[in-house]
């Protein structure tokens, strides 16, 4: 199969049905449509979609927070990756990586000094992707998910400019 080209762009409200559908197909954690719209209106530069031939193939939804650093004993402006999903038929093409790189760059430009996320301890492909992006496991959060599965809290410190 030929590798399809993709573009990364900001989410638009007209993408909502596709993003909700991807969320439901790919992840056990499902969010209400209003949750996606709320994140879009609060953080439009860090809610991104990947488009292949006019079809939404994946998304990353993030938010900015202020709280204790995952690296230093101080407060920090942090980016939080809330949800990342790519449809099965578009996986292993670099789409998840590209979505994360662009979101991390945009979070750095918004003043984040670090980015963190939670990931199921059983989700080895996602953990591998996050490690490739420089994330490190910070701690295990016991019974984080509704089904009782543990999560890794993973984080990465951002440089002044994130390399491409």
From TrEMBL:
Domain N-acetyltransferase: 6-159
One Gene Ontology molecular-function label: protein N-terminal-methionine acetyltransferase activity
EC number: 2.3.1.255, 2.3.1.258
One term under GO cellular component: NatA complex
Reaction equation(s) it catalyzes: N-terminal L-methionyl-L-glutamyl-[protein] + acetyl-CoA = N-terminal N(alpha)-acetyl-L-methionyl-L-glutamyl-[protein] + CoA + H(+); N-terminal L-methionyl-L-leucyl-[protein] + acetyl-CoA = N-terminal N(alpha)-acetyl-L-methionyl-L-leucyl-[protein] + CoA + H(+); N-terminal L-alanyl-[protein] + acetyl-CoA = N-terminal N(alpha)-acetyl-L-alanyl-[protein] + CoA + H(+); N-terminal L-seryl-[protein] + acetyl-CoA = N-terminal N(alpha)-acetyl-L-seryl-[protein] + CoA + H(+)
Keyword Transport assigned: no
Superkingdom of origin: Archaea
Entry-linked InterPro entries: AcTrfase_RimI/Ard1, Acyl_CoA_acyltransferase, Ard1-like, GNAT_dom
PROSITE patterns with a match to the protein in the record: GNAT
Assigned protein family: Belongs to the acetyltransferase family. ARD1 subfamily.
Protein's recorded name: N-alpha-acetyltransferase
Species name: Thermoproteota archaeon
């Amino acid at each position: 199969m030929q590798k399809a080209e993709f573009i990364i762009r900001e989410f638009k409200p007209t993408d909502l049905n596709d993003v909700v559908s991807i969320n439901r197909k790919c992840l056990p954690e499902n969010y209400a449509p209003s949750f996606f719209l709320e994140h879009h209106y609060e953080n439009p530069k860090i809610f991104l979609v990947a488009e292949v031939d006019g079809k939404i193939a994946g998304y990353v939804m993030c938010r900015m927070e202020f709280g204790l650093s995952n690296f230093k004993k101080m407060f920090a402006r942090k980016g939080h990756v809330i949800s990342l999903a790519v449809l099965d038929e578009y996986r292993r093409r670099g789409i998840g990586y590209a979505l994360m790189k662009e979101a991390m760059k945009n979070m750095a430009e918004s003043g984040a000094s670090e980015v963190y996320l939670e990931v199921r301890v059983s989700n080895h492909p996602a953990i591998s992707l996050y490690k490739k992006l420089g994330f490190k496991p910070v701690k295990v959060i016991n019974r984080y998910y509704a089904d009782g599965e543990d999560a890794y809290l993973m984080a990465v410190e951002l440089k002044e400019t994130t390399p491409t």
